[in-house]
Design goal:
With about 290 residues, the chain is mainly β. It has one domain (about 1-289): Beta-galactosidase, Chain A, domain 5. It has one helix at about 100-105; strands at about 1-5, 10-15, 20-25, 30, 45-50, 60, 65-70, 80-85, 90-95, 110-115, 120-130, 135, 140, 145, 160-170, 185-195, 205-210, 215-220, 220-230, 235-240, 245-255, 270-275, 280-289. A nine-stranded antiparallel β-sheet has the order 8-9-10-11-23-19-18-15-16, with no helix packed on it. Strands 5, 13, 14, 17, 20 and 21 form a six-stranded antiparallel β-sheet that branches. A four-stranded antiparallel β-sheet has the order 1-2-3-4, with no helix packed on it. The protein is globular, with a radius of gyration of 19 Å.
């Protein structure tokens, strides 16, 4: 395990999956990130690449060939190389290799940079096309945050606060894990979604094209919380396992397969197309208070 820190934060990182394991605030003395207790969910902040969500039957087609890949892709289980490091920043890099090419026939360089500035951790995804043809991919985040955050409060004491007023529905996830085409109402001219466990009894809340560029976890029972900013991520997932003491806020560039998918990678909703020698970069950040 590796650690970066500054005057406010101390963050622990795992080279396997380039996963954040802990975000500890030295002044509040709180660790805001879920601890990975396998009784609920053994992950803390997986990196989703080169797909987000599930593929129908864990398969897709590309140029007449069929490939198999698990949910959220292989990056969250891969071992990365440290390619840059200071006391307050760290970059992990994953390159295409024999194992990835069996699942994903593209040459790529994928880097995840973590940088601490004040009470904020910035996480950047950098995708480089090192091949000669277009690179097709999706990328996303899956950080889980403690809710309740402090002792003596309950999950239902907290809300998600959107930076803009939203009138938007959630896209349901079918029993086979595929996403429905039509949204069902959820937010109506409001910036607040009060947290309740039953919101997630039918899997994640999936949003498309929110007006907001940040979501905060707040409560009137405590001054402590967090604000997650996500510019240029067109999709958002909010998730928890049943009755878990945490919630995931997941900015995505990409989406799981929809129910009427063709399984052709180039037809997949939200797929990014990066030309040879191209560079794609997106950054999300979370500020703790």
């Amino acid at each position: 395990m590796l650690t970066i820190s500054n005057e406010t934060l101390s963050v622990t990182l795992n080279p396997q999956g380039a996963e954040i394991l802990s975000i500890y605030h030295k002044e509040t003395k709180l660790d805001y990130l879920w601890n990975g207790d396998a009784a609920y969910w053994p992950k803390t902040s997986p990196v989703l690449f080169p797909v987000v969500g599930g593929l129908k039957d864990n398969r897709y087609q590309y140029k007449g060939k069929q490939y198999e890949m698990g949910r959220h892709g292989f990056a969250r289980e891969s071992v990365y190389t440290v390619t840059a490091q200071t006391t307050s920043s760290l970059t992990f890099t994953l390159m295409a290799n024999e194992a990835t090419l069996l699942m994903y026939p593209f040459d790529f360089k994928f880097s995840v940079k973590h940088e601490l500035i004040g009470n904020t951790i910035h996480v950047s995804y950098l995708v480089e096309n090192t091949g000669q043809e277009n690179l097709l991919f999706s990328v996303g985040a899956h950080p889980a945050f403690h809710v309740p955050l402090i002792a003596g409060t309950h999950f239902s004491d907290y809300s998600l606060l959107f930076s803009s007023t939203e009138t938007v529905g959630r896209y349901p996830i079918a029993a086979n894990g595929l996403i429905e085409n039509n949204a069902t109402p959820l937010l109506n001219n409001t910036q607040e979604l009060k947290l309740a466990h039953d919101l997630f009894y039918n899997d994640a809340i999936v949003f498309k094209n929110l007006q907001s560029n940040s979501i905060s976890i707040v409560s009137d029972k405590t001054p402590h919380g967090l604000k997650l900013e996500f510019n240029d991520f067109p999709y958002m997932g909010i998730w928890q396992p049943k009755d878990a003491p945490f919630v995931c806020i997941e900015p995505w560039c990409g989406l799981g397969d929809v129910i009427d998918t063709t399984s052709e990678l180039q037809d997949k909703e939200g797929i990014e197309v990066l030309p040879a020698a191209g560079l794609f970069e997106r950054t999300w950040s979370v500020s703790l208070f």
